[in-house]
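Could you please consider the sequence and fold following this short note?
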Amino acid sequence: MSEITLWIDEREVRCEEGEYLLQVARARGIFIPAICYLSRCSPTLACKLCMVEADGKRVYACNAKTKEGMRVYTKTPEILEERRAIMQVYDINHPLECGVCDKSGECELQNYTLEMGVYTQDYSIRDSSKEKATWGQALYDPNLCIVCERCVTVCKDMVGSANLKTIKRDADAPAKELKDSMPKDAYGVWNKMSKSLIGHVGEEDCTDCGECISVCPVGALSTKHFHYKSNAWELETTWSACAHCAVGCMVGYETKQGKIYRVTNDWNFGNLCGAGRFGFDFAPPLFGARERAAPRSARSLQKSRHDCL
């Protein structure tokens, strides 16, 4: 590919032709919000927050590719207004349990709500009951879910299982008269969120890799052993290499008062298998326990894609 020149918010940028606009912007420190995007996965356009104006047209930066001479604007008044409306939609009926939520302090919904100045709520809809679910080590609370589809995407593109899908549910839809009065993308996100949930529908058993939990931007997916155990800001992260196999994946041991509470990874750049994520309390002398865990660990490793270079 050839090198090209384009302008983002009047800033000259040189990059390879055909790169995704969102990646180009983020690599140069230009902020474009996106709550559904994963850097190593196919774009889903689920959240619409990455909308920008390119050569006078509305495009989505996660899916738009660069070309010579593009002029891109990321913060026009219309775009800022629509992003704020989308965040208002995400906040509708969202449970106010931030003080005890496992994600509080590292929640992207919290961050973007503040970033976009959502201090009032212009929309409402009757709430409905949603049953919690579980698969593998994951606990799924649909009341906290914003249906960003990150978990679906990572399971399909990075784990290779495609066990998770968006599934329909019966619930009130947004009033039709709002379709003409509120921003188009905000209404679309609201309509989808009102009618969808995440479900484990794959024929294979969950391999307990925990990638879906890792990428969840809110508290909808959490681990059984960590649920309601600690606030994120109380934990100290120590980065190390996983000791379970020769790959040596980067892992973050999150501790408090000398105890490991959970293991995390930088999901933008690498995966973890179930052994690395959940086997942090193993002791080398207990060879029999490790031997019994080996088959499940092997299946997790086979499902994960590791960059050994």
Q: What stands out?
A: Residues 235-303 form a domain with the N-terminal domain of TfIIb fold (CATH 2.20.25.90).
